[in-house]
Design goal:
The protein is an alpha/beta fold and about 220 residues long. The protein is built from seven helices and seven strands, in the order βαβαβαβαββαααβ.
């Protein structure tokens, strides 16, 4: 199976479905992580170009933990918009990954980049199969199935499916810890402990199905 997880920012995928894609990778499936924006405003000390370069290296390191391919779109952080150019770029990138299954952000998420990223990705699920929409990569033979990832903190999200990630939780944490600069930024901006936040969220979802850690989705 071919799996594509699409996040608005470096680390979104790891937080919201890192355990699930780790399970896919562990069973031998082809996993791709696609990141829309470059994280270029997430620093109190580095320039935009400097922090974007750091975030890309961290994303590469995180993907390497599970042997996933990385597609880096490079749009400006906080300024992702749903226009023709961006939609065409998403279509091309999704065709490159050629997934059977896609994981995307939902419409109820708090962050505009998350909402827009999910909207574009979901809206591309049929166009990626249309031959007369021409991109670098050829059209896909089948429409991929789309799963909506949980909102951050689970706020305003009603799950339809849960995945028990207890056995790969430490792998998920290794992926998240690869994003060290984001940990520093969240501490600076919000006084937030990165891994602790993720642990609480996955523990809450785990309680719903009687396991230690879980991730939640809608179809």
């Amino acid at each position: 199976m071919r799996v594509l997880a699409i996040g608005a920012h470096p680390d979104d995928v790891e937080i919201l479905c890192g355990g699930t894609i780790a399970k896919y990778a562990a069973r031998g499936d082809d996993v791709t992580i696609m990141i829309a924006t470059n994280g270029n405003v997430g620093s109190a000390s580095l320039t935009k170009d400097e922090i974007a370069a750091v975030r890309r290296k961290e994303a590469e390191a995180s993907a390497a933990v599970i042997g996933a391919e990385l597609i880096w779109m490079g749009y400006d952080d906080e300024f992702l918009f749903h226009d023709r150019e961006t939609r065409m770029a998403f279509i091309n990138a999704i065709r490159r990954a050629a997934p059977d299954v896609m994981f995307v952000h939902g419409a109820g998420d708090y962050h505009p980049d998350h909402r827009i990223c999910g909207e574009i990705a979901a809206d591309c699920r049929i166009p990626v199969t249309v031959p007369l929409i021409e991109t670098e990569y050829p059209p896909m033979a089948r429409i991929p199935h789309v799963f909506i990832m949980d909102n951050l903190g689970g706020i305003g999200f009603e799950p339809e499916f849960y995945v028990d990630i207890s056995d790969v939780y430490e792998t998920k944490c290794r992926m998240i810890r690869a994003h060290a600069s984001q940990d520093q930024w969240l501490q600076y901006q919000y006084g937030m402990d990165y891994v602790s936040f993720v642990a609480k969220s996955s523990a809450v979802r785990g309680m719903a199905i009687g396991v230690e850690h879980a991730e939640a989705f809608r179809s």
